[in-house]
Amino acid sequence: MPATTALRRTLAVIAALPLLTLAACGYGSEAEDDDTAEVAAGAEKIDGLDSVRIGYFGNVTHATALVGNQKGFFQKALGATEAKYATFNAGPSEIEALNSGSIDIGWIGPSPAINGYTKSGGKNLRIIGGSASGGVKLVVNPDKIKSLEDVKGKRIATPQLGNTQDVAFLNWIAEQGWKVDAQSGKGDVTVVRSDNKVTPDAYKAGSLDGAWVPEPTASKLVAEGGKVLLDESTLWPDKKFVITNIIVSQKFLKEHPKAVEAVLKASADTNEWIKANPDEAKAAANKQLEKDTGKALPAKVLDPAWKSIQLTDDPLAATLDAQAEHAVKAGLLEKPDLKGIYDLTLLNKVLKAKGAPAVDDAGLGVQ
Predict the structure, then answer these.
(1) Which of 54, 216, 219, 239 is a Cys-bridge partner for 233, taking CB atoms 3.0 to 4.6 Å apart?
(2) Using an 8 Å Cβ cutoff, are 247 and 109 in contact?
(3) Model pTM score
């Protein structure tokens, strides 16, 4: 099948898929505005803005945004410019919100960022910083699968056709020398595209033998008796790969660089605080999750999920480029031109002020 046809079909399937909840780097959702931010008395507006609208997922892989919201880091950095929030279940609707101007800045996974950038011809967004690495695992039924070789012939779930974890699993399958049709999921392994919200129940019912999924779904499966067979981080150099980036609309970046810099400073400050206060940060993230999704995570799910995620200001650009190549090899994406997807100028300014080393765009920065 030609790559362009595969891409069109993938995007059509993505558009038709139902909503996800607590889905890392998934697709399809609606925003829910949160206008409860408090503005400090006597503070001044940044860039003359009344507000900056920030989007993120109700997911532990978006811990920086969760904690930054809950503990007021974004509001503190923005002064009298109000930090407003919109939560999403998945990537495409967040990209749509960015394109329409409903949000200005967002936390999002690599696949929707790549798709959003390439579909617009490189005109809608920039990745301006990193947020998280890791948090993706292959969890299996230990009664049916005892080794990696046993995955062959089994039914393994991913969150969605063409999403970040789906691409990673298809690439891993290919590296084993096994064959799977990417579109149908049929072959030496049956890849079942299953919403993260239903995957644990499907696993419990016995219709799945395992799943390649992000946190907290992976830890939910473990709570149902599953066993972690593979942590995706072990497949990457230094055990690091991007799971969450920070993006901004190019228009907003051009018109309001001071506001963007303030949000990036707040993000870096939040990550620094989380690392220094892990238990308090975990509680803050869960409190915001409860507010955003209506349900907090139990300790048996939250604790292991939290441990598996590494927060980082570095966008780990080389790993995003590799993920794009994996999608191309799987036939799910036409080879993209990602030059210009990054603008790390303001992030490196923030890091320099903190005495931290600069981060690299892997040659994919604005020229």
Answers:
(1) 239
(2) no
(3) 0.85
How far apart are the C-alpha atoms of 343 and 16, rounded to whole Å? 32
% of residues, the chain, pLDDT over 90: 80
Strand-pairing partners, residue 72, are none
For residue 12, what pLDDT is reported? 39
Sheet of strand 32-34, all strands in order from the earlier edge strand to the far edge: 32-34, 82-88, 51-57, 105-108, 242-249, 125-134, 309-311
Give the mean model confidence (pLDDT) for residues 344-358.
Answer: 97
Which of 342, 361, 165, 159 lies closest to 247, judged by CA? 342
Distance CA 333, CA 4 (A): 7
112 with 92: CB under 8 angstroms?
Answer: yes
List all residues 6 or more positions away from 62 whose beta carbon is below 8 Å from its beta carbon.
24, 56, 107, 131, 132, 244
Angle formed at CA 217 by CA 125 and CA 226, multiple of 5 degrees = 145
The mean pLDDT value for 178-201 works out to 95
When computed from its CA atoms, the radius of gyration of the chain, rounded to whole angstroms, is: 20
Query: Which of 273, 275, 252, 277 shows the shortest CA–CA distance to 262?
Result: 252
The per-residue DSSP string of 83-114 comes to: EEEEEESSHHHHHHHHHHTS-SEEEE-HHHHH
Burial class (CB in 10 A: 0-12, 13-18, 19+), 344: buried
Owner of token pair 């880091």: 73
* Average pLDDT, integer, range 147-171: 94
Crossing angle for the helix pair 317-329 and 164-175, to the nearest 10 degrees: 70
**Other CB atoms within 10 Å distance of the CB of residue 293:** 17
Burial class, 171, CB count within 10 angstroms (exposed 0-12 / middle 13-18 / buried 19+): middle
Nearest CA to 116 out of 264, 32, 14, 18 is that of: 14
pLDDT tier for residue 89 given thresholds of 50, 70 and 90: confident
CA 187 to each of CA 153, 178, 191: distance values in angstroms, whole numbers, following the listed order: 8, 8, 8
Beginning with the edge strand found earlier in the chain, give each strand of the sheet holding 155-158 in spatial order. 190-193, 155-158, 210-214, 136-140, 227-231
Closest residue by Cα to residue 166 from 197, 233, 222, 212: 212
Query: What is the three-class DSSP state of 229?
Result: strand
pLDDT at position 8 over 80: no
Residue among 171, 175, 102, 135 nearest 309 (CA)? 135
